[in-house]
Design a protein that fits this description.
heterodimer, A: 415 residues, alpha/beta, ten-stranded mixed beta sheet, 19 strands, B: 480 residues
């Protein structure tokens, strides 16, 4: 891998027109990655998902160079119907379209940061890989007091032109005081066997509200890793929803730093998996000051020999009195080969706190099925009803009604 | 009230902190093959036992000391320890208690463990381990009548080699982790219990461990075998003198329960915790593991951990037999600069296996407490169940309480439920108790005892009283 990576790196940098200093930084990140390699199960955070093995088994050799000199045609039929929205379109990792037609132009600033690399540090080699190889990186600034009229959908589209590639994406968001953003990440994959490595950084200034919905629904054979870092100042709210279902492997990490008083973070997720899929959600909520709140709910439905893992950590600093932290994960195993692993973790250094977590996993309740069947449903209907009800609980947590309905339709949950 | 205050004052300091002046026989300092041969030789062990030790030592040399635990400690120089220390008077083992060194007897009297059998009112058979050797085992005759073997393990190696050979290392193999393997190489003494088929042990069996000599590591080994349909309840207590340096205690405890057998293992661990500033104290790095080998077998661990500078242990159950049951009840209390990383592992292999984990952690002062546990239901363990509850209580914002459960479910017919909470003693509760005339300290004691009740109830009577007192003493000075 090393030679290939070095060669691909040189090619990538050649096309980028960077200053010597930026190249140095990128080289440094590359060396870090080369030293550590892809994360494996020896690392505590990757205990349940050995990415190194998964890439080896499903992709084999990756190539890291992407030719971004040609443009891809944007297929408008892929766009979400029935919901007016702003768009950012990535095709095979290349930004093809940025469109904020519904918004006041002066309230949104898009800054090209490709030449000033701001490093991402989260102690994992994938951030080094991302730092070394990202092509373009943008920063989106929502100006003070502006609330986007329509949601923003980021389309992550890929087509059969790429194969065994590593694609690195990087976006930064700054929500100034009193602003708000609704953001949907929509994965549309027509490609196979690629590794996507996506890093987002959110900075929420006072009273800002962020709602981020990640939807990985479409069946595909890709491997994905996504990391969201969310910095939260006073009175901010972040809401994250993850539908983890379509990809072969998907690990989503959410890191929330509740730095300002009365800030709160909500993370809700659904695993709906079949075949050999293997997904993971890992959350870290750092309560760093007084009167902060976090709430997490993760539900899984696992068919065939699919595997899901949830690692959630609530950290409470000794200054963070009056913290309210809650975490719940529930899983239904439908097949004897399916597997659910959880590590719900509490690390608490303050005494006046209310923190709890719960985790349960097991089979579908036969009594409930019997009850429904005695009311005239057949076995499959009863099963479906129970599963829908189980998952609906999480979908109902979505606070935006337009998007809630959109996602309900996508999953096919009827009320 | 005044009496109680006096009692508290008396107990406030670590009351087991005295050391006894007894001449010791020691192995040469350091860890090497010669020391292991020395230990084996002095114990008059057969060749197979020496081979067992040497094999473990070979393995040990390849192992690295683990460092993933939460409480960090300064590096231990394993060459700077004595691996064997015994009172000189034990060189020729006394035939009866009357021949015991009076100083030893006095030590145990101070500890509240009278070894004279007639002094026992409630009939608990005691095996007392002083530094590296077992000094006395009481009530032996009575037990022998029923076919129960309760003796120091060094004696069992000579008298019951078949049993020891068959089961020693069957639950904690030679190739286990760093400290367990070290123990396999250098263990000095400990208790051996065998309950024959169908026998219900008529009394509680108990071992009392005491570290006396300085610079000594204590490595004892306990092996309990409950044959088909038998039952035994076993208690373990520990104390050590106050010393400024840290002392290592790395014991191995193996339990084997055959078909329909039940073992109940209770520990009240009160090793010297170090002083107010965290100086001294015992490093308690113990490996305890039970194997439910037969069907319908049951192993239950109950522990009250109040002592030690660092406690690092996970009493575990391997539920191999169908319908077997594992239980873990724990109270861990840390105060001042104490640190604990404790919990359990429940490994479900057989069908219809059940496990239950109740863990209560209390941290005060500058201490740090971690519950770390594993529940693993394998794909063959159909229809199995686990229930876990871990609650933490924090006193002050200088201490920490952490919960790190690992939950693995590979069987769709099995259920796992886990819940954990962290809280503090509420002002309302305190106010209510104080309004009824209790002092703040008494109120805390009462509330904490209530918090721990589920676990305290699991302890045998005699221990429950001691444990309840310990809970109160350990938290002395943490409120106000």
């Amino acid at each position: 891998m090393k030679e290939q990576l070095q060669k691909d790196f040189d090619n990538t940098v050649k096309n980028l027109n960077l200053s010597q200093k930026d190249i140095e930084i990128k080289k440094f990140s590359l060396d870090n990655f080369l030293n550590k390699g892809f994360p494996n199960r020896k690392e505590e955070d990757w205990k349940f998902s050995d990415l190194n093995q998964i890439i080896k088994k499903n992709i084999g050799e990756l190539s890291f160079y992407n030719d971004y000199t040609y443009t891809n045609k944007v297929d408008t039929s892929e766009f979400v119907d029935g919901l007016e929205h702003n768009k950012i379109v990535f095709i095979n990792g290349r930004i093809e379209k940025i469109d904020f037609d519904y918004e006041k132009k002066e309230q949104i600033e898009i800054i090209d940061q490709s030449e000033t690399i701001n490093k991402f540090d989260n102690n994992n080699s994938l951030s080094d890989l991302n730092n070394a190889l990202t092509n373009k990186s943008f920063k989106l600034v929502i100006k003070k007091g502006y609330q986007l009229v329509k949601p923003l959908i980021i389309y992550h589209t890929s087509n059969s032109k790429i194969w065994s590639k590593n694609i690195n994406l990087r976006l930064n968001f700054e929500l100034e005081e009193d602003s708000s953003l609704r953001l949907i990440d929509l994965f549309n994959d027509m490609s196979e066997k690629n590794f996507f490595n996506i890093f987002y950084d959110f900075n929420l200034k006072e009273n800002a509200i962020l709602k981020n919905y990640k939807v990985d629904k479409q069946e595909n054979k890709n491997i994905k890793y996504s990391f969201n870092n969310i910095e939260q100042n006073k009175n901010t709210i972040s809401e994250t929803f993850i539908l983890s279902s379509g990809s072969n492997f998907f690990k989503s990490e959410i890191n929330c730093n509740l730095k300002g008083e009365h800030s709160s973070a909500f993370v809700n997720g659904i695993f709906s998996l079949d075949n050999n899929k293997h997904h993971e959600i890992r959350t870290i909520v750092n309560h760093l000051t007084e009167n902060t709140k976090s709430y997490q709910l993760i539900k899984s439905v696992l068919e065939d020999s699919s595997k899901a893992a949830y690692q959630g950590k609530i950290f409470v600093n000794s200054d963070a009195q009056k913290t309210d932290g809650y975490q719940l994960s529930k899983a239904i195993l439908l097949n004897k080969d399916s597997e659910f692993n959880a590590k719900p973790e509490l690390e608490i250094y303050a005494d006046d706190v209310k923190c709890s977590h719960g985790s349960a996993s097991g089979s579908l309740n036969e009594d409930s099925i019997f009850y429904l069947m005695s009311r005239g449903l057949n076995y499959n209907q009863a099963r479906e009803l129970l599963i829908n009800g189980f998952l609906l609980d999480v979908v109902e947590k979505i606070t935006d009604s337009e998007i809630r309905n959109l996602i309900k339709n996508m999953i096919g949950i009827k009320e | 009230m005044e009496n109680r205050q006096k009692e508290i004052d008396k107990l406030k300091d670590y009351k087991y902190g005295f050391s006894t002046d007894i001449e010791n026989t020691r192995a040469p300092k350091g860890l090497n093959e010669d020391v292991i041969k020395f230990i084996s030789n002095i114990k008059k062990e057969p060749q197979w036992m020496l081979d067992f030790r040497l094999k473990a030592f070979e393995r040990f040399k390849q192992l690295k000391e683990p460092d993933w635990q939460k409480p960090k400690y300064p590096k231990i120089d394993y060459q700077d320890l004595y691996y064997y220390s015994a009172p000189k008077s034990m060189d020729d083992k006394p035939k009866s208690l009357d021949e015991l060194d009076p100083k030893l007897l006095e030590t145990y009297k101070k500890l509240g463990i009278p070894l004279q059998e007639q002094a026992r009112l409630n009939g608990i058979a005691v095996d007392a381990v002083f530094d590296s050797v077992s000094v006395a085992t009481t009530f032996r005759e009575e037990l022998i009548k029923q076919g129960i073997i309760f003796c120091p393990i060094s004696e069992a190696i000579q008298k019951h080699p078949d049993l020891v050979k068959k089961y020693l290392g069957s639950v904690i193999p030679l190739t286990d982790h760093f400290f367990a393997t070290l123990n396999s190489a250098v263990f000095t003494d400990g208790s051996f219990v065998y309950i024959p088929e169908g026998v219900r042990c008529p009394m509680e069996l108990s071992t009392y461990f005491r570290i006396n000599a300085s610079n000594t590591g204590q490595f004892e080994r306990t092996l309990i075998i409950a044959d088909k349909g038998s039952y035994v309840s076993y208690l373990e207590g520990c104390t050590a003198p106050m010393r400024d340096e840290n002392q290592l205690h790395a014991a191995n405890v193996e339990l084997v329960a055959l078909d329909d057998a039940e073992i109940k293992y209770s520990t009240v661990q009160n090793w010297y915790p170090g002083d107010k500033d965290g100086k001294g104290g015992i490093y308690n790095f113990v490996t305890k593991r039970g194997l439910c080998k037969g069907k319908n077998s049951k192993i239950s661990w109950t522990q009250v951990e109040t002592g030690s500078a660092i406690t690092w242990k996970y009493p575990s159950c391997i539920l191999k037999g169908d319908n077997s049951v594992g239980e873990f009840y724990s109270i861990a209390i840390t105060n001042n600069y104490q640190k604990a990383d404790t919990g359990t592992k429940m490994i479900h292999l057989g069908k219809n296996t059940k496990s239950k984990i109740i863990s209560k952690g209390i941290s005060a002062g500058f201490s740090d407490m971690t519950y770390r546990g594993l529940v693993d239901i394998s794909s063959k363990a159909s229809n199995s169940n686990n229930y876990t509850q871990c609650d933490s209580l924090l006193m002050g914002n200088k201490c920490g309480a952490h919960t790190v459960p690992y939950i693995k479910n590979k069987n769709s017919e099995s259920n796992i439920a886990h819940e954990a909470t962290t809280s503090k003693i509420s002002e309302e509760q305190l106010h209510y108790c104080q309004q009824r005339g209790l002092s703040a300290e008494e109120a805390v004691g009462l509330i904490v005892n209530g918090f721990c009740k589920e676990v305290l109830q699991q302890l045998p009577m005699e221990f429950a009283v001691e444990a309840q007192k310990l809970v109160g003493i350990s938290l002395e000075g943490s409120v106000g």
